[in-house]
Structure formats: C-alpha cells, structure tokens
Please model this.
Amino acid sequence: MPKECAFCPHEGKLSAEHVVSDWMKSLFPGKKLFTRRNRAGQIISQTIQEEIDWTAKVVCEKCNNTWMSNIESQHAKPAMTALMIGKKNVPIPQASAHSIALFAFKTAVVLDHTQRKREPFFSRRVRHAFRQHLDIPRTLHMWMAGFASRTSVHFHTGYYKGTLPPSNPLEMYICTCGIGHFVFQVVAQKQIGFTGFYPRTGFEKLAVPLWPRVWPQFVWPAANVLRTLKDFDAFSERWKDVFPSR
Ligand SMILES: [Zn+2]
Model:
C-alpha cells in the first residue's frame, strides 16, 4: 500500500522532512547529544553528533516545500530562536505563542507518523485542516519550559490508554521536544465523556501554557527551568499516572 502524506491526499514518493531544521542546527555549532526514545520511554538511540541529520519521510515534497517551510521561516524561526539559545527577559505575546504552537503541532504529527506500526493519532480531517487553514485542534493543550542544559536535542513521544472514573475511556499522545534551551510539550487526548485529568505535580513553576493561550504579559523564562536530562524525562512522563491504579 503506498504511503500517504501526513497532511494531504498525495500518495507515493514522500520527501525527507528535517525534524531539526537547518536554521536550528546553525544555532548550535559543535557536538550535540541527540536522544530519541520510544513510547515506553526507553532510549532507542543516543549519539553525540556534529550534525543532527534526522529526517522523517512522512510528508510529500509539495507540503514540505510550501506551507511547512513557511511555518519554519515565518513562525518558528522568529518566535523560537531567542528561547532556544537561552535569552532571558523575552516577552511572549499571544502571536508568538501561536507561532510556536504551529511548529509544535507540526512536529507532533510528524513524529507520530514516524511510528508507522500504529494508526496515526490525529484523524485525517484534523491533519488536512492543518495544511489548509493551519487549524490546531482546540482540545489540544501545549506547554513550554526552559532547559538549563545546552546543545542537546531530545524527543520523547508517549502513548497512554486507559479509563477514567466512572468509565470514560481516554487515549493520550504526549510529544515532548527539547531543542537547546527550549522545551515544548503537546498533550493530545481522545476522550469519551468528561473527567478532568491532571499531570504529576512538581512542574507548576516551570511549565508555561502555550496553547490555546499563553499567560497574559508573560516574560520568558518562568521562575524555574528543567535542569538535567533526568528532569526532562520526568517532565516528559508527567502524564503517565493520570489513570487510577487498579
Ligand atoms: Zn502533502
């Protein structure tokens, strides 16, 4: 079966989309620690590389070179550069938060599609609406946090499935990415019925809401930041315990 582009009906040859784009690489010259984990949180690859050259073949050339490339140049680069290189006292107005959210959602969909053994988490309708109108689902939540450690790139994807009381099924996809001093986390859920759920505590002073809205007049960074890779891992897994234990 020919593979379909993650964002449009194109079937067949897919192009190599750089998960870490060239402009990001140029911010961090020299050797970088590059870690990728699977959905159970285990490290699948960890290397020290001069160049981060990880590409995902999940989108067509047209998408890659048009609207996706615009997200990089018109949204991600202007809104995220200062945060990635560790600048302080950076005001983040809603327009910048929206720009970062576009990049974060695009990355979450691309990383989800690299795991071809499972059905895509986001419906075709949602992915196509993103290409057509840059619509991000309102039900999604995103967070951002500072990271003290430098010259590192970390991706962590987690999938959780279970039942919330009284008997409401919930499926979650959590995508956490750290690039330089900037970390974002996309929290997507499919839920039947409504029961609120909350992450593990301990990150309140460092996790800043990014989507649907950033705090008014927020100035980067928050009072606390993630200090170590262990902190990053704990942050990535903070939604793991939303289901009551049996
Ligand atoms: Zn496409």
DSSP finds six helices and eleven strands in the chain. Helices lie at 22-25, 61-65, 67-84, 94-113, 124-133, 229-236. Residues 15-236 form one domain.
